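OP here, attaching both records as promised.
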Amino acid sequence: MAGAVILDPNRRLDGLADSKVLSAAQRERLHEDIVEKAVAWAVVSVTPDEIDRINIHQATLQAMRRAVLALAPLPDAVLVDAFRIPALPMAQRGVVGGDRRSSAIAAASIVAKVTRDRVMRQLHAIDPRYGFDRHKGYATAVHLAAVARFGYSPQHRRTFRPATLFETIA
């Protein structure tokens, strides 16, 4: 998932911060504020097959590019968390630690994270064996044990191979 947000300078959003330091309840509240008050916002995902085909880094860049291009209106310039997005038709600047230093980047991380968490809960409802509602797809011990026991689900990228997965299977 990748998010992009154009904030309205005339509409205050209290509590914006890096999505990783906020509680789930804080992220949910901020998500609602962001989508209500932003000039524009978009969240885009890439499929597990696409990630497997072009690799996780390239898929992340592709999702970020698609999210920016989904904004209406398009921004004149883009702040990006950490690195540049190839083939964007507007000026951009990578901001190291951007989700801590830029309100727009923090807002984008929040809408992407909340959307991802919601998708993970939906996937859990479809197939609870993997515990997506708890670990949200991250490589926790519980998740790795479920993959070792049940194999990959259709939602897993086939290149999902943390070193600890092999240790769990062995």
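Record two, same layout:
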Amino acid sequence: MSMKRREPEQGGMWVATQALPRSPGHVFYEKLNEVLATGGFDQFVEELCVPHYATGEGRPSIQPGV
């Protein structure tokens, strides 16, 4: 009879995002997002990516700005 030690099972790794602390962010990234939004950067990149989206296969694509 083999007497192997049994390893304990690993616990769950799920953490509710609401339980995580929130930081106020950084002024640089807030300003960068403002400049990109004003210039329509997200829309421009999304239009460039449209030909690469799969149609009718699998899950819908996630927009590049996300």
